[in-house]
């Protein structure tokens, strides 16, 4: 069952306030490099044939397929940029997403809105992801803080999701 969200429905005509667009109408754009991790074969099972697709999941995805994001090293020479670069070089460089995060990451293409991503997540994972809009918004806010995605408003201008 779908639970109500504090966010307004995309395209609902609800006015989120002057100079602000509905967060569900924003379009996330990936900024980081990433790779697919193949599912681990079960112990005692034969390795999969090359090119053989997964048998479970949505749109050819196995439930244990994962995405690994390569965190970029910041550039620039300001004191803040230097500290961020040192932190990035000494910290975690590769982020392994869980199945839900991997599902969303693969669909971030700069065209789909946050509302559409929430609908796809709900269709794929059911009630386990409710409230889907809030879950997707929190995940994308975290990716934005980590500088792994940016968001565009309906007019194509960059905007911040985290400062709404």
Explain what the structure shows.
The chain is α+β, with helices and mostly antiparallel strands. It has 4 helices and 6 strands. The strands form 2 sheets. The protein has a 3-stranded antiparallel beta sheet, covered by helices on one side. It has a 3-stranded antiparallel beta sheet with strand order 2-3-4, with helices on one face. A hairpin with a 5-residue loop joins strand 5 and strand 6. The longest helix is centred in the C-terminal third of the chain and has 14 residues, at 132-145. The chain is globular. The two termini are 27 Å apart. Residues 1-6 and 45-63 have low confidence and may be disordered.
List the helices and strands and how they pair.
Blueprint: E1 27-30, E2 33-37, E3 66-70, H1 79-90, E4 94-96, H2 99-107, H3 114-125, H4 132-145, E5 149-152, E6 158-159
Antiparallel strand pairs: 1-5, 2-3, 3-4, 5-6
Helix pairs in contact: 3-4
Helix-strand category: alpha+beta
Number of discrete helical segments: 4
- Unreliable spans: 1-6, 45-63
Radius of gyration: 18 Å
Distance N to C terminus: 27 Å
Overall 3D form: globular
Major sheet strand order: 1-5-6
SSE topology string: EEEHEHHHEE
- Helix fraction by DSSP (H/I, runs of at least 4): 25-40%
Defining traits:
29% helix, 14% strand, 164 residues, 4 helices, three-stranded antiparallel beta sheet
């Amino acid at each position: 069952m779908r639970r109500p969200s504090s966010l307004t429905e995309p395209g609902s005509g609800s006015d989120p306030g002057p100079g602000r667009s509905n967060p569900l109408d924003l379009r996330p754009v990936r900024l980081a490099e990433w790779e697919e991790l193949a599912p681990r074969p079960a112990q005692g099972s034969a390795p999969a044939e090359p090119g053989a697709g997964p048998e479970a999941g949505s749109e050819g995805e196995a439930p244990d397929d994962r995405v690994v994001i390569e965190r970029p090293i910041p550039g620039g020479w300001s004191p803040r940029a230097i500290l961020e670069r040192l932190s990035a070089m000494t910290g975690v460089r590769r982020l392994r997403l869980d199945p839900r995060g991997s599902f969303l990451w693969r669909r971030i293409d700069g065209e789909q809105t946050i509302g559409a991503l929430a609908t796809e997540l709900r269709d794929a994972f059911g009630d386990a992801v409710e409230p889907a809009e809030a879950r997707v918004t929190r995940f994308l806010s975290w990716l934005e803080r980590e500088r792994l995605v940016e968001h565009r408003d309906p007019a194509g201008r960059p905007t911040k999701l985290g400062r709404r």
